[in-house]
């Protein structure tokens, strides 16, 4: 597996997502994912499965240093003092002294901006997180974050898949040396219905999901974090390093972008997204 270099971090290009996995499924699937070759695991406080992820990692047949572990701070814990305490709580559940990456899960207009980034940086400076970044930040928030953060931000974790282009953020992140971490890389399963992805897959002996994931990681500075509750699917999703999409196929997939392609936009949380 290759890694994506971003502002001093080296992040495995394919990670395993754990959103909506109940603790017992998170334990079973993270255990399987590591055995299948995943070295990058994505969780969050709000997923309520950090303890299960931590248990799977504690019993894994690989050393902690070989894994890249991400968690995210929820919006109710972004104030100074609370943020530091909540990271300590996450680390306790994850049974580790540090996460590789700590993200602010959503933009939070209710917390003083500079103070929030000062806390995020303090946590990194204390060694509790090796790297820091943001999630769901549109371009205006990202520009402010880069100014406010005294240390580098390595990624913006955003929804990105064949049905949702990120024409504003992707070049901006590349310019800033930051990675795009593509969440919902399978559009929560919708990619499996696409005739275009099916046809491209058939030419390579791959399924539509493998084409979508390959399309993402074949782009400069893009990381993908698919989730599955089934061992066979998680194994299939990492089996994407033995084929290559042609330039023509890359464009055919990009052409699937749809103005209504966004899957995640929770009311009360979602910021004003960048124009499509
Ligand atoms: N930062 C954020 O706000 C945010 C938001 C959303 C997600 N995320 C992160 O991104 C990760 C991925 O996003 P996601 O979980 O929403 O969606 P996703 O990975 O795009 O799709 C997951 C869905 O695809 C299905 N699937 C996976 N592999 C498959 C295969 N090989 N064949 C058929 N179906 C397959 C899964 O079903 P089965 O379980 O049946 O395989 C599940 O229903 C999350 O788990 C989380 O870590 C972050």
UniProtKB/TrEMBL annotation:
Is Oxidoreductase tagged as a keyword?
A: yes
Question: Superkingdom of this entry's organism?
Answer: Bacteria
Q: Write the record's keywords in alphabetical order, separated by commas.
A: NADP, Oxidoreductase
Q: Name one Pfam family in it.
A: Aldo_ket_red
Q: Which residues form a coiled coil?
A: none
* Residue stretches making up the NADP-dependent oxidoreductase domain: 14-256
Q: Which family does it belong to?
A: Belongs to the aldo/keto reductase family.
Question: Which PANTHER family does the record cross-reference, listed alphabetically?
Answer: 2,5-DIKETO-D-GLUCONIC ACID REDUCTASE, NADP-DEPENDENT OXIDOREDUCTASE DOMAIN-CONTAINING PROTEIN
Could you identify this protein by its name? Aldo/keto reductase
Species name for this entry? Natronospira bacteriovora
């Amino acid at each position: 597996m290759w890694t994506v270099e971003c502002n001093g971090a080296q992040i495995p290009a394919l990670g395993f997502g754990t959103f909506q996995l109940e603790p017992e499924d998170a334990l079973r699937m993270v255990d399987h994912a590591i055995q299948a070759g995943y070295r990058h695991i994505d969780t969050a406080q709000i997923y309520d499965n950090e303890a299960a992820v931590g248990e799977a990692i504690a019993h894994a047949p690989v050393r902690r240093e070989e894994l890249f572990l991400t968690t995210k701070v929820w919006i109710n814990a972004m104030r100074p003092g609370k943020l530091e305490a909540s990271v300590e709580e996450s680390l306790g559940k994850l049974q580790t002294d540090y996460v590789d990456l700590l993200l602010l899960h959503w933009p939070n207009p209710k917390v003083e901006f500079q103070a929030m980034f000062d806390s995020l940086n303090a946590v990194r400076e204390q060694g509790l997180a090796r790297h820091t970044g943001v999630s769901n930040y549109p371009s205006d928030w990202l520009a402010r974050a880069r100014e406010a953060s005294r240390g580098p931000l390595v990624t913006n974790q955003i929804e990105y898949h064949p049905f949702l282009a990120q024409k504003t953020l992707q070049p901006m992140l590349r310019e800033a040396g930051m990675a795009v971490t593509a969440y919902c890389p399978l559009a929560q399963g919708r990619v499996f219905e696409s005739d275009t992805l099916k046809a491209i897959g058939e030419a390579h002996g791959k399924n539509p999901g493998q084409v979508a994931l390959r399309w993402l990681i074949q782009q400069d500075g893009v990381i993908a974090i698919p989730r599955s509750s089934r061992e066979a699917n998680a194994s299939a999703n990492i089996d994407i390093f033995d084929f290559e999409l042609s330039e023509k196929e890359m464009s055919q997939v990009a052409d699937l972008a749809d103005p209504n392609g966004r899957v995640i936009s929770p009311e009360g949380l979602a910021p004003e997204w960048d124009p499509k």
